[in-house]
Amino acid sequence: MPIFSGRATGSDAMKVHVYDSLGELVGPVESAKVVKSDAEWQSQLTPEQYEVARGKGTEAPFCGLLLDNKKDGVYACVCCSLPLFSSGAKFNSDTGWPSFFQPVAPQNVVEEVDDSYGMRRTEILCARCDCHLGHIFEDGPRPTGLRYCVNSESLMFIEREDLAALADPAAAG
User: Fold this and answer.
1) What is the mean pLDDT of the chain?
2) The whole model's pTM is what?
3) Which residue from 53, 51, 49, 152 is spatially nearest to 95, judged by alpha carbons?
4) Residue 150 three-state SS
5) Helix or strand or coil: residue 137?
6) pLDDT tens-digit profile of 110-162?
7) DSSP-assigned letters across all residues of 3-34
């Protein structure tokens, strides 16, 4: 399941939180940026995942496979397996996309200004591979008041009892 392959690009190391072989979130640890060619991403992802995750697309509302997921676990990046959101931070926003009030660690999700479609929004991306996740809005619940609105196609779900399967080599230490 973990997808750590890619090329480290010089000084592109970053500090992120990852899971260890015991299924515990650890960090921050140093991890290399995952960089792949478009052809490599296309061979790894489904056409729908590629359009959303690498092409900055958006899946149709109320259609994502993870929208109604109520299981206990972690949502990780579909491209590089970096843990991004916990089921404990998920809430029903009635917007049609999985929504979270915070990431598993602030370092794991980066923000960029998005001026597409004639409006200014804040895009959210995976810190390790720049996978497009969705957007963040300031209309979420307490304690953060934030809504991380995320495409299901950008995520994979790992149940709590299987988190050791996400063990990252960076956690070894």
Assistant:
1) 92
2) 0.91
3) 152
4) strand
5) strand
6) 999 988 888 899 999 999 999 999 999 999 999 999 999 999 999 999 999 99
7) ---SB--TT--EEEEEE-TTS-EEEEEEEPPP
Q: Which two tokens stand for residue 57?
A: 């697309």
pLDDT band at 9 (very low <50, low <70, confident <90, very high): very low
Alpha carbon distance 82, 85 (integer Å)? 10
- Rounded to the nearest 5 percent, the helix, strand and coil shares of the chain are 20, 30, 45
Mean pLDDT, to the nearest integer, of 90-115?
96
Active site residue 149: yes
Q: Are the C-beta atoms of 120 and 25 separated by less than 8 Å?
A: no
Residues making up the chain, counted from first to last: 173
Residue 93's identity, in one-letter code, is: S
CA atoms of 145 and 142, how far apart (whole Å): 5
Torsion of CA 134, 10, 38, 46, to 10 degrees: -50
